[in-house]
Amino acid sequence: MNRNSYICLLFLALFSLSSFNSKAQVINLKGNWLFQMDQNDEGVTAKWYNKKLADVIHLPGSMAENLKGDEITLKTKWTGSIYDSSYYFVPRLKKFREPGNIHIPFWLTPAKHYVGVAWYQKEVNIPKNWKGQRIVLHLERAHIETRVWVNDQEVGLQNSLVAPHNYDLSKYLVPGKQRISIRIDNQIKKINVGPDSHSVTDHTQGNWNGIIGKMELEAASPVYIDDVQIYPDIKNRKARVKITVNNSTQNNFNGKIAIAAKSFNTNESDKTQEIFSPISVSKLGKNTIEVELPFGKGMLTWDEFDPALYNLEVKLVSKQIKNSKKVQFGMREFKIEGNRFLINGNPVVLRGTVHNCEFPLTGYPATTVEAWEIIFKKIKSYGLNHVRFHSWCPPEAAFIAADKVGFYLQPEGPSWPNHGPKIGLGQPVDKFLYDETTRMAKEYGNYASFTMLSAGNEPAGNQVKYLNEFVDFWKAKDNRRVYTGMSVGGSWPVVPNAEYQSRGGVRGLKWEKMPETESDFSSGIAPFKVPFVSHEIGQYCVFPNFDEIQKYTGVYRAKNFEMFREDLDDHHMGNQSKDFLIASGKLQVLCYKNEIEKMLRTPGYGGFQALGLQDFPGQGTALVGVLDAFFQEKGYVTAAEYSRFCNSTVPLAKIPKFAYTNAETFKAEIVLFHSGKTPLKNAIISWTIQNEKGNILSSGSFDPKTFENGNGQFVGNLSFPLVDIKEASKLKLEVKVNDTAFVNDWNFWVYPDQKVEVSPAIYYTTTLDEKAKEVLNNGGKVFLNASGKVVKGKEVEMHFLPVFWNTSWFKMRPPHVTGMLIQDKSPAFSNFPTSFHSDLQWWEIQNRSQVMNLEDFPVDFRPLIQPIDTWFMNRRLALVFEAQVGKGKIIVSSANLSPDLENKPAAKQLFLSLQEYMNSDQFSPKNSLTLDVIQDLFLSPSKEIFNTYTKDSPDELKPNSNQNKVK
């Protein structure tokens, strides 16, 4: 035997022994790594991979988390559009622009910021028995571009925002100590997904540099199972399993594949027989085979109600090789029939929220199943069954957790191709989105929860052609989920080939007219023959919760909240912040309730994606959630309360209005939304009407009926004459599905039908005229209806609906007010039932009324009715206030309150209640004012008027593009 033959046989023997082990060997790479920033991008030229780096960092983690990077200044080059430059110029915010006191209002502030190149390095001891094995470096969720060296040899470059960066190091590593160097670049370069994409932007997770998930070296068989994709066939009780085997050796491979599946997370258990198939793979080649896996009568299916899961074990076996792979999947079919989604043939309506990558402690997404289970269980407790990931794709742990909890997910290509990049024009983002979604399908395609896919968010460019082709590509490639173009607002062009529409335009509350719950969205969705999922519903703002500031103990600080809090204090309302939060929160919940119910009563409505159940920390600080950015409650609504109107089954009432006189009859049509596992059989729907004391004034029930899945299904009508209601009253209609937990309710108000006359003891006037002054000087009482006369505060536009998204992002586009704080315990409201917040009886009083700016009033002055201003301005406002003036007393209202109002029973009743209060001994205003300060409300404009300083959007004055203008 010659020397070469001997070496060859020895190698084969070693190869056989090492690769015979089916279980991979792993070196965990978490821990301390050498580290160095490369601000000048000189590391490649200077061969930093050959030198010992100067610093140390802990991985998994980000640079900011390790306090590596640059300090935050006004000239920090953020990744994200700034829509409102006024922060850089407003005089009162100057102190927040001073070095050492920088408070950025647009998003959360990281401990450090760095965009550029950084190097990470670790020395690893490779075991001798790894010789001949395939060795893979696995980097989960590296951000963004990685280049890898082993000693002085470059291995390659990868760039993915959605999938692990895996490098085959087999031919670079030998037993003994080896140096691995990783160069990470988080700059937005040739491949530009858009600076506001939630995969990269400072508006949400931030453009961090690092590696945050699993980091390991894995040694396993050089002939290996590269990919397994499972295609369930529910109807025929089988799955088609597509298996790709790679052969990295110089020898042809002949062996067999064995597959079997077993359930693991249910009380009932099921398993399949083991199925075998031969397979051959040529040297340095690969082969893909398909194997049919039959299931028996005990097959378990996956859905939101019963998320049964299986593990598929795939074994690759030959005389020399053993390799295996375990894959989690669910037997489910998510399809479309007409304008309905079907899960396993059962119609389902999507009740979703948008996840924007809010992780305020770390600044990057969680990579553990436990963390994602907490999030999904919290979301599910609010009656939701769906999550859209806005312009990003979560790590694998999210899919695993969603499978277990039972959620329908819509991840997206990691792009918002607008504000710079555009699709369909041949830019690199075009190919990148195909590459990224292909990686998503390979890495996460077997997870049952991955039911929908969008290419991204709100594009610009030649979008219809590009997205039609994108949808057609995926429909032909993979039938396990359904596809839309991109998630868009109502003004975007329709993509005809999309299997479902995720778009705006058919959403919102049309409360310029009187609030009601009779209308629906039928006419809006009529042009669409596919399921319509409403894009980003809600966006109703709530005042900041300053108690939340103390939660920011990680990489981020809520400098935006700190600035808003200090500014509120500067406007002499710091002690009202909690009241503002709760009052505005109650209105926010009311709005979400009414918009969601409107969708649930619309026949054929496919679903919604709320923005959001939780707050959005960027884009000017969009406090649109009933949960904060930590997915925790804020104190004004619980999951149990929210899920009364948002659930798999929701009783609904069609009510024409909410303010009545006792000369009328309250009427309601009861309908039902049901999206359950099975029909509601022989369901009895019952109702009660009760007063605030809990006394039942009327009740009834409807005949038993079976309800299939569907929206707005007719139940019956009810009628309740109001003639016996003698006093102003708040009543509640409650409707429930008997013997279930499903119940819902609506408040309405009843007022005596009576003529209201001005008391002779009160001077009623619409101007602060000479007679009013005379009455006050003589110790009399004046009611000033100043509706339409306000100058100081005229620029503040109040609707009944609260601020949309936030006034910074939309440059003070109205409305500017987010509800009202009402001194409900005051005897002024003795004959006007109200809580401390806006409710539906206030609509005819509040909507489009002027507000008064109390900037010159005493600092402790508090009005009876106080509109809550946008937190970017924090103006002290009033709708109704009382005061002592000289020897007299006055009530001033900028809402139209008078004795002769027609068809406004609530406004008329409020006037009556205020007048009776003025005629009582309890009318004793706390504060004294001069006539001049009141008169000035109708003469002088506000001292501070919002100035955008620029008309462009996004701003041309943002520091990234024109730092010379920042003074």
Please, could you describe this protein's structure?
The chain has 967 residues and is α+β, with helices and mostly antiparallel strands. It folds into five domains: 25-217, Galactose-binding domain-like (Jelly Rolls, Sandwich); 223-334, Immunoglobulins (Immunoglobulin-like), CATH 2.60.40; 345-643, TIM Barrel (Alpha-Beta Barrel); 649-751, Macroglobulin (MG2) domain (Immunoglobulin-like, Sandwich); 762-937, no CATH class. It has 13 helices and 51 strands. Strand 50 (880-885) and strand 51 (888-893) form a beta hairpin. Helix 2 (369-381) packs across helix 3. The termini are far apart. Mean pLDDT is 95; it is low at 1-21 and 960-967.
Low-pLDDT parts are 1-21, 960-967
| Strands, count | 51
Overall helicity: 10-25%
Number of domains: 5
Sequence of strands across the biggest β-sheet = 3-2-6-12-9-10
Mean of pLDDT: 95
CATH homology group of the largest domain: Glycosidases
Secondary structural class:
alpha+beta
- The Cα radius of gyration reads 32 Å
CATH architecture of the largest domain: Alpha-Beta Barrel
Major beta-sheet overview: 6 strands, antiparallel
Q: How would you sum up the global shape?
A: globular
Q: Just give the CATH class of the largest domain.
A: Alpha Beta
Strand proportion: 25-35%
What is the terminal-to-terminal distance?
A: 83 Å
CATH topological fold name of the largest domain: TIM Barrel
